[in-house]
Each structure stands twice: as structure tokens, then as C-alpha cells.
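Cross-posted from the bioinformatics board.
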Amino acid sequence: MSGDDRDDIEEGEVRSLLGVREPRVRLPAYATVVERARRPRLALVPLAGAIAAVVFLAAAGIWFSSRLPSAVANPTPGPSQSAVCEPSAPAVVGPLSLGTSLRTALEAITPSDPQINQLRWVLRFTVPSGAPGPATITSRAQITVSGRSGLHVLGYDLLEPAQRALGDGEVLTVGPCQTVRLVVRAGGPLLEGTFPYELTIDKVGLPEGGTVSARYSLQLSCNNRAFTCTPVAAGTTPAPTPTPVAGILSPHFGVIYQGVRQGYEKGSAPLVRREGETSTVAELAPSFFNQFAGAVSPDGRRAVYFAQPQNEPWALYLLDGARPTDLRKLTVIDGEIPGGSLVWAADGSGVAFAVLDQGANQGVTPRYSAIRTLDITSGKVTELARITDGSAYALVGWDRAPATLAALMVPHGAPASTYVVFGSSGRRTWQLDGEYSVYGAPNGRDVVGIRCAAGTGCSLWTWTLADFDTRVDRKVGPGLSLGFVGFRPNSNDLGLFVSSSASPSAQTIELWSADAGRRVIYGPVEQMPDAMFFRADGSAVIVSTRPTETLVVDLRTKAVSPLPQPVPSAPFEIGRPVASIALD
Amino acid sequence: MVVIPIAVDWAALYEEHAQELAGYLAKLLGDRETASELTQEAFIRGLSAERSLREPAAALGWLYRTGTNLATSHLRRRALLRFLPLTGVEIAAPDSFDVEAAQVRAALRSISTDHAATLLLFYDVGFDRKEIAAMLGLSEETVKSRLARGRKDFLAAYRRLERGLAR
């Protein structure tokens, strides 16, 4: 087979894989976009503003580089250059020798401007006066963190001998007794903490002939809030985990964390750790994406979750807090995929889950969606309902005693349209009168719905699981943005994340109940936490304020303690806490 | 002040190309909601950028370039703030469970965004090398090399994922 044949096959395969049909992306009418364009753009949050600025500068860099005269790309020595060829400027890494004569250094990593959130890696290349010829530097770089693909390179600039934008892959010539300084612009910093970074210039042509890569390795300590990175000495001990406040954390409860990376190898899967400890109590069944797709039981002592071990069908597993290391497989859904959330029966005796046919992948409407119930004790699975019109079920709640199970019917690629209840007297449906985010309480009786509209804020509705007609607007007030934290175990309280259009920076986590009204339990906070959930017994709320910081707020005293977390080995290895479970 | 340019028929562009642009961004991002947002944002910027868009024929390329830049920035930010809702009915996203399509997305994500964008623009959207070069401010030679390197990286990543190996 010729090289051309191989290329043709390769091209065909890539075309086929990339040509997978996508479902239509929902877009508003053109008039809506025009209306948005007419609105003032100053309402962007700071982060969005930073992104816009990055995009603008990146685009501007491309524009400038495409219009610069090509002669400028190859600087020639100027008359003012010193006979002492290598500058004495300090360096973060180096000076290093490449080949026999070329000298290079990483001069600085400029703290990024908070408006554009970029890191500028300043590199220097010097060819000594007696070198046999010029060196060539190709402006193409990679930046890895902890040995994995890391910061995204946004562009290149030349600083010396002239200041201008460089094109990707542009070749610079460095003659004898000449210095070239260039900047690699990268997105970042990524995450607070100290990690090994390495910048590589892929292609450097040596004065004596031959081509090498230039590598600059260093430990960087980055602060994502200040948008700065500081080099630190290799081998520096990472910052210690925060010390818990005595009496707030409880080792009787475990925290379930998302897996830290994709794949099936040991250490990737979701984990359970005791509050206040960084060692692992149990590792859950692995799945490629290692997201915890499960639910904790009403009594807080067990959890069920879906996982798909390598080369096996999806299966439903039980995590028992009393025996967390037992991987108990409850049932297998061969030829099917999980269809979203699952719910426990109010008495904890069973779980209900939804499945879709395995063909219901991206771009394909499901052939069917089914609701099944599973009795935890006997393991018996019963199919309760099946729909074949392309919709999918999303479960809301299940009360086994009066045999009531509620779900939403979600048309493919559209918001939920119908609330459906399966009961002893048959099936009842209601057309939804808006886009609700719906949450069923563990008691199998109460349901909360949050509806939000641009301009007016969110409204909070409650109804009983069996009857959508009982819904009541709880009148939480105008101009509020609401996020759902959870139903507080062992109480009638609801946890909400609340911000007001009147004071957008004063965001709080609140408890809400029909009898006691609204009570602030944590805040104000500047931005919505990454994760918020109640401890399994309802005595605390756990708030992940940023990727490396999680706090436990005691709801009786309002005292706050940091939750010690293991230091990740790479900035993207974040095991985000997602749920609490009673361990003993 | 926002000025709606006369020279570019944005309504027609939106009608004919918004869905195609959104589809391209959805594949690049693996996220249809964000693709919708960024498609709208690209049009909003176009509507607001009269001066840089006097040439109607260049508007489509400008939209793709803007969309690509927006997506690149979004992917970078998403690496910082990965979060999937895991409670409540909002988890109902069957895409998350489709391993094969997810492998294509994961393979695209594991190669450089520049290469992924170039591959999609060429093999999926159907632009030719010259059009992509003009759109992204590159030489045709660079586009050609990105396609060659991107193809190899993408297939290698896809095959690693097929075998169940992490990147």
C-alpha cells in the first residue's frame, strides 16, 4: 500500500468520525440576537470580560501578523549591538546551552493582566560572535503541566530586536552576536498550587547545523485570584492542607468526590473520604468519565450510582456506608444507557431509574425510554413505563407506600414538556406551564420547582408529588436568582443559593421553609460555589468555594471549618466533592 | 452605540449559516448549549463591528474565526472550572453516556484546539484550505500541516480511547 493510499484511508476515517450527525443546536430567532446586540455590553461579569479581551487580542494578533512585511520576520543585527553578545538580564531558567554555541534562557513569566488573564513567557536566544552560522527559532510552543497537555498557547510576539506580533510557525533567524527575545502568550493560570510546568519550543535550528527542541522546566506557584504565577525552587513542599476547626468536622460522615481523571486505571474513579481526612475510605466502580452519577438514600446511609467498567455494560451499584469497600452490583442494563437521575423510594427500600436504548447517542433520538424500579432487598427489577415517541423520562420522586412515582417527559433536544404521575389509579399527565428545574424531596411527597425569567428573576413553586395542580408560588420576592442546594435531611428546610438583582454581589446560601421563612446560613460570597450539599444528617452544609477549597458550615453554630483535601498532582486533577454519606 | 451595518445581510447570514456554525462549535466544544451561546455571541459581535466588516463576502469567514476564538477561550476556561450538575433532573443528558461519540469528543479535546478546529472546518464544515487560511490568518501551508498533524493526533487519540487507555 502506498503512502497516498494510507493517507486516503486516514482521511476517510477522519471524515467519517468527524462527520457524525449532530442534533440541531437550539438557536433563538434572529430578532432576539439583534435585540441582544442592541443592549449595553457593560453588564458582563469580570470573567466574561476577560474572555472577551483575550479573544480580541488573539484575533488582533492574527490580523497584525498577516499584514506585516515579511522582511521584518528575519531580523538582522543592528549597529548598536555590543561585542559582549549574551545579555546579562536575569533568568528564571538558564542560561542553557543548545548544541555547542546557542544560548537560551527563560527570562521571565510576566504576571498576567487581570483583564486578559494571560501568562507571557519571555524567552531569549543568543548566538555568540564566533558561531559558525545563524540559528533559527520557529515560533511554535507547547506548555505542559505535570507532564500532561496544559496551558493553551494563544500566540507569539517578538520583543527584540523589534516589537511585533509573530505568526504561528514563523521562523526567526538569529545571526552571530545577536539576541532575539520572544514572548509566548498562554492562557492561564489554571489553578492555585505548585505544579511542574514545561515550555517547549519545538524546533530550534542550531548554528552548527541540526535541529533540537528547547525545553524550560520549572515549578510554578500560581494564584488564580491574583492572576499571578511565581517560580519556586524545585522540591518545594506544597502548601499544607488547611487545619480543620475542632468540633465541626465529623469523621462519622464521608464525602463522595468525583473521579479526578478519565480512564479506568486505579485512582481515577469517584472516591469516598471521611470528613477531615485525606486518605481514601473507598474507591467506587470506575467508569470512563468517572463522574458520580448517583443519589444518596433518604436516611443518608447508602447511595446508588451508575458506572460502566471497561468493556462491560452499564450497571447500577450500591454503596453502603457501613461497608464502603464492597462493590455491590445491583443490576446490569445491557444494551442500554442510563437516562439521567435516579431516585430512592421514600422508605429506602428501592430505587427507580430511567434507561434509554444504547442507540440514543449524540444526534440520535432515543428509540425508547423506560422507567424501572428495583427492590434493594430482592434485587427484582420491574419496568413501570416505556415511551417510544423520542422523549426521555427524567425521574422526580417515588413514594412506594401509596405507589406514586412522578417523572418529567423530555422531548429530544427540548425542555421538559410534561409532568407525569404513575399511581395505583393509573397514569396522569400535565403539560408544564413553563421551564421548571424540578427537584423531588426524599420524603417522596414534596416537589420543588424553580422557574426563572430574564428581567423578573426566579419564582419558587412547591407541589405534592402526586398532583401538579397543587402547585403554589411561594412568593420569594422579585428580582431573585435562585440555585438549588438540596433538601436538608431530617428537617422541612430547603437549601437555596440566592442572589438579588438589587445587590448582585451579596450572594448567600439560605435555608427556606414554609413556617420559618428565609434564613441566611452562609455568605455573602462573590460567586456561585462549585458545589453545595448538605451533610447526610442535615447538621452542616458543605460548600466548595473554589477548586482547592471546600468549607463545612455547622448549621447550629454557623461555625466554619475548611475541609482538608489531598493536593492534586496536576492542576486539572480536581476531585470535586459532590455528596455526603453516613459511614458508621 | 450599536450600528447595524447595511453592507452585510446579517439576517440572511443567520438564516443560512447560524445552524451550521453552531453545529461546528458544538463538535469543537462537545456542548450544544455553549455552542448556541457562542454562535449568538459571534453574530452579536458582527452586528456591533461595522468597521471591521465592510466586505460582506468576508463576513462568513469572520464569523467562523470569531466563533473559533470564542470556543478556544471557552475551552481554556472550562479546564479551570469543570463542573457537571449531578443531582436533580438536570443530569438528564444522554450525550454523557454515549461512549463512542464521547470518544470522538474526547479525542478532539486531547489534541490542540487549533488542530481540532482546522480538522472540523475542513472535514466537517467543508471549507477548503485557502478559505481556512484566510479565516484563521494562516498560510495555506500551515493549514495543510495542521490537517496532517491533526489527523494523526486525532486518530491516535481516538484509538487510545477505543482501547480504553487514558491519554
